[in-house]
Amino acid sequence: MATRTQKFKTFVSEPMGDKDVTTVDGINDELGLKLAAKGFDKAYILLGQFLLLKKDHAVFQRWLKGAYGASPSQAQRCASCLTDWCYAFL
Fold first, then answer.
1. Whose CB among 13, 25, 43, 49 lies 3.0–4.6 Å from 19's, allowing a Cys bridge?
2. Keyword Cell division, does the record have it (predicted)?
3. Count: domains in the chain
4. What CA–CA distance (Å, rounded) separates 31 from 61?
5. Along the 90 residues of the chain, how does pLDDT read in single tens digits?
6. 38 domain-assigned
């Protein structure tokens, strides 16, 4: 089982609302700036992309790595965070 960071636990424990994209586990400030520059400035917008990709971890991770230069670890943590948030709130 993967280790869950405090950032992960905090994000998954409450509604997303209007949170910044950097509140998603795996998205640091540098990656957040790259995402925001292309319109993914809020967590719910990133979630929308995740849902458009049918919650497919592999496809979402490839998109995040290919389009924004996320590391494999960042992409995996982000996908897991969004998946667990979906289980809790959708």
1. 43
2. no
3. 1
4. 13
5. 467 899 999 999 999 999 999 999 999 999 999 999 999 999 999 999 999 999 999 999 999 999 999 999 999 999 999 999 999 999
6. yes
Q: Is residue 1 part of a domain?
A: no
Burial class (CB in 10 A: 0-12, 13-18, 19+), 15: exposed
Three-state SS at 79:
helix
**Cα distance between residue 23 and residue 20, in whole Å:** 6
Give the Cα separation of 42 and 11 in Å (integer): 13
* Size of the chain in residues: 90
Report the CATH number at residue 13.
Answer: 1.10.150.40
The pTM of this model reads: 0.94
Domain with 28 in it: 6-89
Residue pair 21/38 in contact by the 8 Å Cβ criterion? no
